[in-house]
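re: the backbone from monday

yeah here it is again, tokenized this time
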């Protein structure tokens, strides 16, 4: 059974930083970071595919950095220059790619509806 566990969230002031960590039980799955802001739908935040290419939603470009440690099956999200609008529950999610993650990200990207395996989430609260 696929298991994901996020950690690293918490309260932070505007301009501060946090590093989220997601440990994954199965390295063969494609992973991504998502968030759900208060009153909003879940949205993709960032992903990194096998070849190292990354994807970010526009609002976090230049502030967030996604990375993956393949040896540890761990996905990271370094978040800098945090803003109150970043307040959300952050999730990592995974999906099994029948044709590999490069093809997966090219087709599904970080559409939350395409991912079936989710962690419990970690809360990030940015105060002004």
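seq for it, each position gets an aa:
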């Amino acid at each position: 059974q696929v298991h994901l566990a996020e950690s690293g969230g918490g309260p932070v002031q505007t301009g501060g930083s946090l590093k989220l960590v997601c440990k994954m039980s199965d390295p063969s799955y494609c992973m991504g970071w998502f968030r759900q802001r208060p009153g909003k739908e879940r949205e993709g935040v960032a992903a990194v595919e096998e070849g190292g290419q990354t994807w970010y939603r526009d609002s976090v470009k230049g502030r967030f950095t996604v990375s993956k440690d393949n040896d540890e099956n761990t996905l990271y999200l370094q978040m800098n220059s945090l803003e109150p609008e970043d307040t959300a529950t952050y999730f990592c999610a995974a999906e099994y790619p029948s044709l590999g993650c490069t093809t997966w990200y090219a087709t599904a990207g970080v559409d939350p509806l395409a991912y079936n395996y989710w962690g419990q989430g970690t809360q990030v609260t940015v105060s002004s």
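The mean pLDDT is 93. Helices lie at 101-107.
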